[in-house]
């Protein structure tokens, strides 16, 4: 099991948090997701055999938000 924290730009409400959460939960291999608005952050536990950090970050961007690197 691997863990990452990703800073996110563009979230402004609870609906944004829900959208990012859904996008992350749809990624194969993601086990647990916690997304907060303040600070704008996603904490993700995932199986590295099924996915990687780049794919997880891409899912956030595909949902319409920016990953702060």
UniProtKB/TrEMBL annotation:
Domain of life: Bacteria
Domain HMA per the UniProt entry, residue ranges: 2-68
Record carries keyword Oxidoreductase: no
Matching SUPFAM superfamilies: HMA, heavy metal-associated domain (SSF55008)
Keywords noted in UniProt: Metal-binding
Metal-binding is among the record's keywords: yes
Name of the protein: Heavy-metal-associated domain-containing protein
Species in which this protein is naturally found: Jeongeupia naejangsanensis
């Amino acid at each position: 099991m691997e863990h990452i924290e990703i800073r996110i730009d563009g979230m402004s409400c609870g609906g944004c948090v829900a959208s990012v959460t859904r996008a992350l939960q749809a990624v194969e291999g993601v086990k647990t997701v916690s997304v907060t608005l303040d600070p704008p952050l996603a904490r993700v536990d995932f199986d590295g055999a099924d996915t990687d950090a780049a794919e997880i970050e891409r899912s956030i961007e595909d949902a319409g938000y920016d990953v702060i690197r």
